[in-house]
Amino acid sequence: MSSAFSSNDVEVLSRKINIEETLPKTDSLALLHETYEIPRCIQHIKENNYTKVALQFPDYMLADAAEVAYQLQHGTSADFYVLADTSYGSFDVDEVAAQHIQTDLIIHYGKASVVANTKTSIIYVFGAIKINLDPAINHFMQCFPEQTERVLVLSSASYISSLDMMKDQLRHEYPNLSVVTLKLPDQPKPDTQVDNDDFCTNSCPDCSCRIKSTKTNPETGDPLVFEFQSFVAKLQENMSIDDYSLFFIGHEKSEMLQNFQLQHPNCKGFIYNPAVEKCTELCCTINKFLMKRYFITEKVKDAKTVGILVGTMGMAGFREIIRHLKDILKQSGKKSYTFVVGKLNPQKLANFPEIDIFVMVACPEETIVDGSDFYKPIATPYEVEVACNANRQWGENYVTNFTELLPDGKHFVEFSPHKEVTVSLVSGNLRGVSLQEQDSQEENNQLDTIREKALSVFHPYSSAQFYAGRTWQGLEQKLGETPVGDAKEGRSGLPMTYTHEM
């Protein structure tokens, strides 16, 4: 039986899985080889003489795990191990589990953040899902009848293989069309010019391709390059992404689409779902979502104890952001504790009632957690920065990639703690007392400090906490302070009608 502090093991068998993209039925062997890029993986394994290979599948691809492992085993002499359950999430490369068998290669299937910085070699296989181009192009032309309009085509990683064909059919009629391509971390930095006009879309670790410069020279008019997570796209000179309309190919609830809207809330466009071949207009509901995130930011300002949740061990810079969060929380007068709990659920975090709020350190796709089922809210590193850093204000572009908040990141802001006393928009109490000021107050009022510490273990809305904030603490003896006098007759009768009051 499940409780508030532990979950039932049987729930794993009945757990519901949220599937965004629908994989095609891989009944034929040829389709299986094409979807999971088995020939490319076999060639890479043979060229590098790998002996132990870990296959990491998301939940919606586990049905083909056995057949994929068999085909790879049949084509190579290496040993293959299937990672059926990841330590943190499907986006994160699970090097922790792979190191248990000391593998020398990890093949990551499905959705990925492509920001891993692991010691083990990695191949990304997104699951090449072919889309039906005819209805997709028809919907595109209906959404954008003006052929001179600037349009950015963005898709989930599973559909990235079909974008080149879509671009070839539309580039002549839509001269201002911009289509994204993958930019993988193992490629060289985008500062080398090559003759090829296309970006590299190979996902092999030793890829020797180059992509064009991302810098814009106003004098020469070099093309701009729009970068979003693991994707890049060429833009027209002197144009920004705000001058483009969006045509997104994927599910309406895609994490990538949500992150794009957070960073560009004013962008308009359409969403095309290839699974149902339906196109819908991009809804402007991101403002309501931002209002909820701002409420969590206010909760961070009120919090005295913050729990830092480690949600990744494969993304570059996760140790640096943890140290950064600890530092700014300490300078802001807050205590912080680090928790490594693996995959999150309400039962795990309910065992830490002393924590006022948690902050999630994970890849961009998993950093925002829906905390409606949790006992305490879960913030992001960016929201902690907004709450604690006086130099950072709410209203700028939302940052989901925590590496951009670190020094040398494009959204780094020098930290400065809040020095003024403000009023909480959540509780209405005053806030702004730092740890140094609390230490100086302990020397002047030891009794109040002891009483406050003794009652701080209770719930903030309990009667004991309310009692600590009252000015009248009850009857006091005042021994030696009351002058000695003759005895007097006290009250008599019932409390509702004393005899002297009648």
Outline the structure in words.
The protein has 502 residues and is of the alpha/beta class. Helix content is 26%, strand content 16%. The chain has 14 helices and 20 strands. It has helices spanning 29-35, 38-48, 65-75, 95-98, 133-143, 163-170, 255-263, 286-302, 318-331, 346-349, 381-388, 435-444, 446-455, 463-468; strands at residues 52-56, 79-83, 105-109, 121-125, 151-155, 177-179, 181-182, 224-228, 231-235, 245-249, 269-273, 278-281, 305-310, 335-339, 357-361, 378-379, 422-423, 430-431, 493-494, 497-498. The strands form 6 sheets. The protein has a 5-stranded mixed β-sheet with strand order 6-5-10-11-12, covered by helices on one side. Helix 8 (286-302) crosses helix 11 (381-388). The chain is elongated, with a radius of gyration of 29 Å.
The chain-level mean pLDDT equals: 78
Give the neighbour order of strands across the main sheet. Answer: 6-5-10-11-12
| Annotation, overall tally of beta strands | 20
Gyration radius over CA: 29 Å
Given the structure, what is the number of helices?
A: 14
N→C terminal distance: 62 Å
Tell me the fraction of residues in β-strands, as a range.
Answer: 15-25%
Note poorly predicted spans. 186-223, 434-447, 449-458
Helicity level, as a percent range?
A: 25-40%
Shape: elongated
Task: Give a quick account of the main beta sheet: strands, pairing sense, barrel closure.
Answer: 5 strands, mixed
- Determine the structural class based on helices, strands and strand pairing: alpha/beta
What's the topology here?
Blueprint: H1 29-35, H2 38-48, E1 52-56, H3 65-75, E2 79-83, H4 95-98, E3 105-109, E4 121-125, H5 133-143, E5 151-155, H6 163-170, E6 177-179, E7 181-182, E8 224-228, E9 231-235, E10 245-249, H7 255-263, E11 269-273, E12 278-281, H8 286-302, E13 305-310, H9 318-331, E14 335-339, H10 346-349, E15 357-361, E16 378-379, H11 381-388, E17 422-423, E18 430-431, H12 435-444, H13 446-455, H14 463-468, E19 493-494, E20 497-498
